[in-house]
């Protein structure tokens, strides 16, 4: 974490979202983009309106299962060090509907920070 100690301004609030690995794979590997319109779809949660559109959807290389596993492995290797560095980070269950996660993060932003002990 030497790189983080060199940053001139550190965030005052940090959030860690705990999401099971299978949910991460489901959310990311099923994302697609329409190369014609630029619209983003999710094959399970926000499918394209027609089969014609679905047929032309593209998956970003970064959303392949292999790439996700590599990124998650890197995250898991560094997460303990990050949590230690950001001692007052807020950890929450990210495997909920987006509105609930947003509400929880919003409350973590608008509520005053705890005072540090002298």
From TrEMBL:
One of its GO terms (molecular function) is AMP kinase activity. SUPFAM superfamilies: Microbial and mitochondrial ADK, insert 'zinc finger' domain (SSF57774), P-loop containing nucleoside triphosphate hydrolases (SSF52540). Belongs to the adenylate kinase family. This is Adenylate kinase 8-like.
